[in-house]
């Protein structure tokens, strides 16, 4: 089976490179390496304090530091005293890591939360247990919790931090749009505040802001994890990423990562510098879980 994964990975990269020459809107990715078993379902990435962190789409209270040259796990971080349901996103600022425990495939959860960890309490290279704080929230617009997956507009797998707020981007199976919500960074319990929506033509799985805060990337895919894409937003003012306040300023551009029907479940993206991004994918029947890198030069 592993040989099959390797074959498909090589085939995917070869076709990606070929397609990039033909279509200016398509981007090729370079594969760094496969993840170890604990990250077979890597669903979040963030660059913080000079390190790359990832987590798995599960209920375990674990976070991992990852080697950017090999994709190997270099540190296990255990979150003490927290019960997780569905970890789907990871972001950071200068002081904290934020774990998005808000995966909500069927739209029936009433315990949505973001778990905050202090970066200064995570020393490098040794297993460590850390205390956490909770930012609990709900969507005021959600009135039905009946578990109808295909009609659900309140799943979420993408989050960024900016200023004193966290911004969430929903994964909407009902209409393939994404809705932007905002929450305070401080521990507490809040209603998520809606800030508009955008037709992404797919399912959003991750988000990342550039180090300057002037560029936003949204990662997603179509049905059955196929035809992954990146939306690049620029020219926005503050956190008005979709240009709701002044649409003439904000710009949006869509890049295809590969248009062929390969089950390539890209789940996470993060800037590590103004011109470099990392992405990760979960294990599927056709592609091995792994880490990818791409140059993404942007104006400052």
Short account of what is shown:
The protein is mostly beta strands.
Structural write-up:
The chain is mainly beta. The protein has one helix at 2-22; strands at residues 30-34, 42-48, 51-56, 62-66, 73-79, 89-92, 96-101, 113-118, 128-130, 133-138, 155-162, 165-171, 178-184, 188-191, 193-198, 203-209, 215-221, 229-234, 251-256, 266-273, 276-281, 290-295. The chain has a single domain (2-289), classed as Neuraminidase (6 Propeller). The chain has a five-stranded mixed beta sheet with strand order 2-3-4-5-9, with no helix packed on it. The protein starts with a helix and ends in a 5-residue tail after the last strand. The model is unreliable at 1-24 (pLDDT under 50).
């Amino acid at each position: 089976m592993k040989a099959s994964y390797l074959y498909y990975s090589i085939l995917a990269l070869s076709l990606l490179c070929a397609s990039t020459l033909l279509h200016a809107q398509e981007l090729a990715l370079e594969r760094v390496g496969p993840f170890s078993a604990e990250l077979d379902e890597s669903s979040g990435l963030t660059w913080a304090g000079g390190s790359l962190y990832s987590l798995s789409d599960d209920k375990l209270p674990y976070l991992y530091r990852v080697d950017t040259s090999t994709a190997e796990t270099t540190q296990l971080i255990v979150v003490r005293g927290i019960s997780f349901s569905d970890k789907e996103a990871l972001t950071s600022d200068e002081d904290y890591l934020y774990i998005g425990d808000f995966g909500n495939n069927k739209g029936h959860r009433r315990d949505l939360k973001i778990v905050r960890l202090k970066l200064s309490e995570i020393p490098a290279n040794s297993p460590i247990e850390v205390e956490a704080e909770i930012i609990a929230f709900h969507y005021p617009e959600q009135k039905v919790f009946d578990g109808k997956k295909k009609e659900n507009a309140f799943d979420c797998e993408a989050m960024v931090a900016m200023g004193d707020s966290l911004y969430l981007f929903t994964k909407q199976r009902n209409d393939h749009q994404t809705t932007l919500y905002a929450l305070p960074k401080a521990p507490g319990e809040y209603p998520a505040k809606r800030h508009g929506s955008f037709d992404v033509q797919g399912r959003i799985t991750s988000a990342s802001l550039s180090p300057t805060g002037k560029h936003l990337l949204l990662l997603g895919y179509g049905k059955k994890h196929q035809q992954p894409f990146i939306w690049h937003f620029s020219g926005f003012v503050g956190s008005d990423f979709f240009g709701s306040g002044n649409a003439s300023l904000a710009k949006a551009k869509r890049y295809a990562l590969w248009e062929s029907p390969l089950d390539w479940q890209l789940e996470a993206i993060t800037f590590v510098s103004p011109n470099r991004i990392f992405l990760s994918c979960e294990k599927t029947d056709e592609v091995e879980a792994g880490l990818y890198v791409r140059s993404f030069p942007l104006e400052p």
